[in-house]
Amino acid sequence: MGAFVISKRNNDAYKFVFTSRKGKIIFTSLSYELKFECEEDIEKFKQDIASADFFKFKSSNGKYFFKLMSGGNHFATSRKYTTSLRLQKGINEIVLYGSKSETLDFSENDFVFSD
Predict the structure, then answer these.
(1) Is the residue at 111 inside a domain?
(2) Cα-based torsion angle of the residue sequence 77, 66, 5, 30 in order, rounded to the nearest 10 degrees
(3) Predicted structure pTM score
C-alpha cells in the first residue's frame, strides 16, 4: 500500500508526495503555506478519489506524466514515466490504494539518530 508523505520545501512551504508500495514517488502536490492545509487536502482527496481526474501529457523529450485534478482544481503533478503503460500503472496505484494509504509527517526534521 502507498503512503502520503508530508515534508517541507526549501522555502519553508509544505508539500506532500504519494509514494507507491515500493517507495517510488508517483506524484507531488502543490505548495502549502500551512501544514494543516496539506493534511486537509490529503483527507479530502482520500474521500473523493473516485471523482479525481487524471490528464495525461507527453513532454517534449518523450516522457509521460499526468496532472491530477481534484474538485476542479490542479492538485498535483506526477513524476515522469518512460512509457504510457508505466504512467497508467501509476494512476492505477493511486486509484487502488490512495483511499486507504497512511499519512506520514516528515516536515519537522526530527531525526531519531543523532550525528
Answers:
(1) no
(2) 20
(3) 0.86
> N- to C-terminal Cα distance for the chain?
32
pLDDT at 115 over 80: no
Q: Please, what's the b/e burial string for 44-62 (b: 16 or more CB within 10 A of its CB; e: otherwise)?
A: ebeeebeebebeeeeeeee
Single-letter code of the amino acid located at 55: F
- What are the grid coordinates assigned to 101, written together? 494509504
Range of the domain at 86: 3-102
Instruction: Please tell me whether residue 100 adopts helix, strand or coil conformation.
Output: helix
How confident is the model over 85-110, as a mean pLDDT? 89
Per the structure, the count of domains in the chain is 1
Q: Is residue 31 part of a domain?
A: yes
What tens digit of pLDDT does each residue of 68-80 get?
A: 998 888 989 999 9
